[in-house]
Amino acid sequence: MRLMExxxxxxxxxxxxxxxxxxxGKGDKRRCTILAPLVIPEWQVHGERVK
Length: 51
Hints:
Blueprint: H1 3-7, E1 14-15, E2 20-24, E3 30-34, H2 40-50
Antiparallel strand pairs: 1-2, 2-3
């Protein structure tokens, strides 16, 4: 992932069920990458705090 793609990342871009991150890139191009199992619990906790 590029730096600005990380900055623009939102919780709704993360699909915990399919373990994927949906990335919005330059020119409104979209792609997916794998969500590492190691970070899933941390991101779920963060997502609950943000809501």
